[in-house]
Amino acid sequence: MENQIDHAFSDAERAAVYRTIFNRRDVRGQFLPDPVPDEVLARVMLAAHHAPSVGFMQPWNFLVVRSPEVKQRVRDVFAKAHAEAALMFPEGKRETYSQLKLEGIVESPINLCITCDRERTGPVVVGRTHIKTMDLYSSVCAVQNLWLAARAEGLGVGWVSIFNQPELQAALGMPADIVPIAYLCIGYVSHFHEKPELEKAGWLPRLPIADLLYYDQWGQADAEQKESLTGALATMQDDIQQRGIFPK
Ligand SMILES: Cc1cc2c(cc1C)N(C[C@H](O)[C@H](O)[C@H](O)COP(=O)(O)O)c1[nH]c(=O)[nH]c(=O)c1N2
């Protein structure tokens, strides 16, 4: 029988994959004006296009925004929603929320909207026959592929979602039946934060993964930590928190 370990990547390759995952950040504020070469943009977009999709539907489009006028229009749509959003938080958190930097639309050299065309391959799709939202999740997979590839290229990516959706669609000349899944700000950066900015700002901590784990039935946890999986996850998470990256 073939040894399954033969299919694993080398230690260095695995380390690179995990480093990309653990060091990816949502970037809002450190964008440099340096242009992003088309070959680099092409690589990360092709990575997105190789994402998994339900029924191989490939429901995405990529709308590249470089025009300062269009960016400004989108920034205005953000500003309106951001002001509305502030009022939704309880008083104690409202001021903190208002001070968070949550977009880099104008400063980043490239904006990219990744969309979902829900009718791309007709009404009946393999794998989407019962749970209709699977196409939306597929476009999210494309976003994540791009985000990780971009990190490996040294490019920052920030996902902006504080928009009234019809206003965003109008700003981009997008038909109402195309769903804007992710509006991304992309560019080289002065630095990457070690931890999520919301964690650094004290907004929320990273949850212990062992607390999120159930066995066999929803809600059934391993209270006494007898499962080696629970223990391994807890140890690894502590390690990552302390050393920053995994594996060394
Ligand atoms: C669907 C979705 C939507 C948004 C985000 C993410 C995702 C997945 N995030 C980024 C989010 O705040 C960030 O991922 C977490 O705080 C964790 O930080 P890192 O991504 O690990 O740096 C995000 N960030 C931001 O500044 N403005 C935004 O509107 C959004 N919207």
TrEMBL record:
<dbReference type="InterPro" id="IPR012825">
    <property type="entry name" value="BluB"/>
</dbReference>
<dbReference type="Pfam" id="PF00881">
    <property type="entry name" value="Nitroreductase"/>
</dbReference>
<dbReference type="InterPro" id="IPR000415">
    <property type="entry name" value="Nitroreductase-like"/>
</dbReference>
<dbReference type="GO" id="GO:0102919">
    <property type="term" value="F:5,6-dimethylbenzimidazole synthase activity"/>
</dbReference>
<keyword id="KW-0288">FMN</keyword>
<keyword id="KW-0560">Oxidoreductase</keyword>
<protein>
    <submittedName>
        <fullName>5,6-dimethylbenzimidazole synthase</fullName>
        <ecNumber>1.13.11.79</ecNumber>
    </submittedName>
</protein>
<keyword id="KW-0285">Flavoprotein</keyword>
<feature type="domain" description="Nitroreductase">
    <location>
        <begin position="22"/>
        <end position="188"/>
    </location>
</feature>
<dbReference type="InterPro" id="IPR050627">
    <property type="entry name" value="Nitroreductase/BluB"/>
</dbReference>
<dbReference type="InterPro" id="IPR029479">
    <property type="entry name" value="Nitroreductase"/>
</dbReference>
